[in-house]
Amino acid sequence: MFINFKKVSIIVKGLKLLILYFFIIQSCSFIIDEPKLGEYRAEIKTKDGSVLPFKFVLLNESDKLIMQVENDKETLIYDDIVYVQDSIKILMPPYDAVIIVKSKGETLSGRYLKEESGKEASFHAIINDKPKFISDKDANFSFDGKYKTLFRPENPYPGLGIFTQKDNNIYGTFRKNTGDTRYLSGITFGDSILLSTFDGAHPYLIKAVKKGDTIFGNLHYYSDSITDFWMIKDNDYELANSKSLTKLKDGFQSINFNFKDINGEFISLNDEQFKNKVVVVQILGTWCPNCLDETQFFLSYLNKNPNEDLAFVGLSVEAAKTEERAMKRISKMINKFDIPYPILLAQYGSTDKEIFLEKIPMLENIISYPTTIIIDKSGKVNSIRTGFNGPATGQAYIDYKNEFESEIKGLLELL
Asked: Residue 176: is its pLDDT beyond 50?
């Protein structure tokens, strides 16, 4: 057989060049345009195509990229930012939310994604020092005050709007039995209202119009849902007492549980670490901003009021599909906030409250994460509180802190 070595040599050289070409092309495709530092105005598209805006600053501190989100009186720092091929991933632990973008000039374009559900919305941000909302039209009314609110009129649940106004700028939140919508801010112009917030887990847009004495609006939750509501000014209106909504079943005075901690060890309320102590049982989820607000209050309280007769334990309900992923989310939350008490995995794969009730059958019902159960030194349930009034609720937050501190102090003083 005759072999033409010259032809073979040409073919080999050709293959080498082809491989080199594809290597260069692939390498170039992963070159990232470094994002510009500065103040951005971001937009997330809602379910009906409306724009949900928020402001953030992109910083570089010690060669580390940082996203600093501004929500009225609140500043949130997201510093878990990684480069993946040609994209930038801004993770927001312990939430399951992530922003995935490509940088080009002064813009960042991509998507906002909830990793567990797979639901997403388009995301776009551009360097811009202007406010979230702009209008040259004056407001026809003052939005100051408290508002009796009814969400989802066809299947209603109550709310309480608390707002302040300065010129055309408005600030505030909605309280609900399940918690609050955290820091909302925006403008009022003519008979219209626009508000938004972005805390990583809950991007909200409020669009409303005043008609007569009533304000009609929609609450947009990124691209996932739109909830109708109406509200009317009522400075005397109050929500139901948060201690009246979840109760023990008849015949029960205490609860018990047996769930794993992040080390795989089962922990029960009957364990030695809880005996003869006042115990605060926090039912929460790492995906829940109100739960994290409550956690940070508990950490602040513990820091100022250490007491060997007081114990805390968290029971976490996770959307993560596997136990391993759920435990990772809990571990990230413990590490991020330096939580000194155990957080146990009570449920994963679903946040369904009926499923959770099967695990603690002493409870008659549960309507919210967070729900907090305070147990006295004898092991009896002293109170069950639904939801949490966070810092954005103002006086309601102050009242909650005072009530909590008073209840714990009273129980600790009992023999």
From this structure: yes
